[in-house]
Structure formats: structure tokens, C-alpha cells
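User: I'm curious whether this sequence folds into something compact or stays loose and floppy. Could you predict its structure so I can see for myself?
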Amino acid sequence: MEVAPIAHYHMGGIRVDTRMRTGVPGLLAAGEAVGGANGANRLSGNAITEAFAFGRAAGREAAAMVARREAPAFDPAAATAALALVGAIGGDAPNPAALVDALQRAMAEHAGPFRTADSLLRARAAIAALRGRLGAAPPGVPGLGHDLARLDWFDLRQMLLVADCVVTAAFARQESRGAHQREDFPQTDPAWTLNQALTLDPVSGQLRLSRQPVATDAAAAA
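Assistant: Here's the prediction. I'll summarize afterward.
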């Protein structure tokens, strides 16, 4: 029986408006997938509350969208790259499950709750190395049964992106706050009372980091 610490949750998530709409037309998000509800740390027991409250809001908005016949038009050109990847046939590749394990170990060791610039750079290097080992196409052949290695490849591809988001945001935030503890910046800095948002550039494939001030009660009321 394995007994070890595990990353149970994180405070980031998808940016939504009050109707649970995301930046992707027609896509809603709810529950712990939504960012911004927990602040710098998460209160124990919030998971069910978030699922109920945000799920209800997202369900109502989804029903309203159907009633308005509001649906984004399918754009074949926008789907070309995704469909090509799903249908791709990769060559021999390392065991994706083993690479998932390597990513988890690297993040636990270098990007855990206690971080430094050096440890986060090591995490970034590990992510880059694993991306190189992942390859450009999934192993196996599409449509041939339940290919676990192929599914693990797609999982790992997204896990690497999420890990990159965590490391990029943690490296930029030069302070300690809540569950983010920078041993090289041990104090909380009022200048860092802000939210960081990451977007993926569709052309370059690079992450873009932006910052927004945290709305105070007075600002939110205005």
C-alpha cells in the first residue's frame, strides 16, 4: 500500500463570467474547474458547494442558450489541426504511463507548495524534456479498440500544458501567499494582490501571462 502526499487541489482554474461562460463560445465551466473562487487557499469542504452552486448556474445558462438557439457555428478550418491529431498514427514511443509518472514526480519535487526560482526552473526543464519524449503524434492506430497507451498520450499532452501553467504562474509570483510559498520570497507582498491569467497563443503555442487587480468589494459594487 502506497502512503505518500498527493496534490489534492489547486487554486487556479478556468476563467468564467457570472453565467459560467468561458472564453470559448458555447463552452461553460463549473465546480472546481472554475478559477477565482478560493483566493490564495482553499477551505476544506468547498468541493461539493462549488459543484452545486456553479453547476446550477451553468445548467441554467445552458438551458437558456438552447432556448435562444444560441450555438456557435462549426468552423471546419478551426478543427483541422485537432482532427488531424486525433487521426494521427505515431511510431514507437516511450510508455506514456511512465512519462505521466515522471511528470508527477518532477512536479512534486520541484513545484510543490514550497518553491524557489531554481526549483521551478528545474520543473520547467523536466516539462520540456518530457514534451520532447512525448513526440508529435500518439502511439497506436485510431479506432482500434480501447487503446490505453493512446489515451494516456492525450492525457499526458494536456497534463504537460497544465504543469507548464502552474510553473509559469508560480515563477512569476515573487512572494509567498496562501498555498504558494516561495522560499526565496518568504513574505507576502501587497503589490502582488492580483490575479494572474494564462492564455495559449494559437499561433505560437506559447503561454501568455497577464495580470489583473483583485476586485475589492467597493470596486465590485461599482
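Summary: The first strand starts at residue 114 and ends at 115. The chain has a mean pLDDT of 89.
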